[in-house]
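How a chain folds remains the central question behind the approach discussed here. For one protein, we set the task of working out the structure tokens from the amino acid sequence alone. The sequence in question and its structure tokens are set out directly beneath this paragraph.

_____
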Amino acid sequence: MLDADIAKLVGEPAPMPPLNPETIQLLRANMAAMAQHFSGPDLASVSDHDADGVPVRLYLPSTERRLPLLVFLHGGGWMFGDLETHDAMHRQFAHLGDCAVLAVGYRLAPEHPFPAGLDDCTAAFAWARREAQRLGCDPDRIALGGESAGGNLTAALALRLRDAGEAQPLFQLIVHPVTDFTLSTPSIDTVSAPGISRDYLKDVLAFYTGDHDPTDPLLSPMHAARLDGLAQAIVLTASEDPLRDDGEQYAALLAQAGVETLVCRLPGLPHGFLFLPSAIPAVARSFDLIARLIRRYFAQA
């Protein structure tokens, strides 16, 4: 059951409008307008950088010590969101997780379909590794995370790094991801949620995928021939999310492949809960939980 405070905020589930160039622009504007009402905590330093052509924003809760770094990839269906819309979320992660956060402003579909966004995330992560010390971060403690579309990009980037023979991030933080573009998991049809339906998901995936095979592992990590050799993973799902089973099945496959995996279903939360106001108690609790996990996994290094 959806948390009562969230249900009061979002109202009755309503279908999203059909996606086309006009409605995409409208939804982007709506997200930007909503984000203006959200604010995160003040931090010691927030600065914008160019990561080899990719806009990134660095959040530092302290400038007096070298901090571990979480490179974080925002959600939004590969079509929505940017450094401004998700600023409050990134500030919360840095403040509560006591770590530096590097937010990545990757290119969006449909103007820039796959693999443009993934290529940007790859470039930004490589830049973060190269520049970590100069940025005041610990180059030996760099993790990768993302929510929703960003969770998909996180999983895909881990696969790309492994297959290229490059080092894995310290850990993966994957929050309610999409890992199977065939939309085959049961909860897509059995869980009702505001704004998300099978038809909407099909449209979103089609805009991002373009002409590519949707079972390409860099689109659908669940379809990878092998999942061994990846960084330890934290996989968080939301009970009231049609994509809940997707994340949980991917976590099970990671564990079966020998990847150390923690999986947790958060009760009462919908897809996209991290974008909701942190003044809602259930949302605040989710940030606290994620922050505790971030601190724990960085402390183990």
Notes: The mean pLDDT is 96. The beta strands are 45-51, 54-60, 67-73, 100-104, 137-147, 172-175, 233-240, 261-270. The domain at 4-299 is CATH 3.40.50.1820 (Rossmann fold).
